[in-house]
Amino acid sequence: MVITTGVFSGKTVAFVLAEANKKLAGCYSPYSFSELNDALSRINESFVDGIKRSDFLTCSTTRSVIASQKAPDVSELLVAESEAKLSAFPNPYTDKATIEFTLKEAGDYTLELHDVSGRVVKHISKGKAEANKVYSFKIGSGSMSNGIYMARLTTGKFNKVIRISLIR
Q: In the chain, count of helices (H) and strands (E)?
C-alpha cells in the first residue's frame, strides 16, 4: 500500500512503519513523532471492518515503488559500523563536549547535531575527510535545552548516528 497525501506521499506503509520503529528505538529519523503518529493513525483509520474508508492509501501499480521504499536490512546497517567511528565525550555533558569521527575511506562528509524530533540544532562541520584520520569538534551547550541529541555523520555511502545527552 502506498500513501497518497501528506509528508509520506509516495511512501509505502512498510516505510512508515520502519521509520516509526527507528524513532521509537532512539535512532535518527528525519520525521517527527507527530508526523509518524499522524500517518500511522490515518493508515489504521483507512480501513474499518475490512472496508476502505479513505483515499489516504492506494495499491501500488508498479513493483519499483515498493522496492525503492524498503527498509534497510541488518547487513546494510552494519556497513556503517565498519565504515566509520563516531564518538562523543564526555557523555552526558554539561557545558562542552567533543565529537570525533574517523572514516575508513576518504570522502565528503557532513556532521550535524539533531534534537529528538529530527530537527537540525547545529551544523557542526562539512567538508572532505582523509581516510583513517581523526577529526575532532567541540560543541557548547549554548541555548540548547537539557535532553538527548543525535550527532549524525553523513557521507555519500552511509549515515551514522550516536546519542549525546546534555545535562546542566
A: 4, 11
pLDDT at 27: 82
Fold entry, domain 75-166: Immunoglobulin-like (2.60.40)
Q: How far apart are CA 42 and CA 54, in angstroms?
A: 9
Give yes or no for a contact between 87 and 139, defined as CB atoms under 8 angstroms apart: no
Best CA proximity match to 54, nearest among 41, 42, 66: 42
Cis bond before residue 72 (omega within 30° of 0): no
Q: What is the pLDDT of residue 33?
A: 85
Kindly provide the residue ranges of all beta strands, DSSP E only, lying in the chain, ordered along the sequence. 2-3, 47-48, 51-52, 57-58, 84-89, 96-103, 107-114, 120-129, 134-140, 147-155, 159-166
Q: Computed over its alpha carbons, how large is the radius of gyration of the chain?
A: 19
pLDDT of residue 93: 92
Domain ranges of the chain: 2-71, 75-166
CA distance 108 to 32: 27
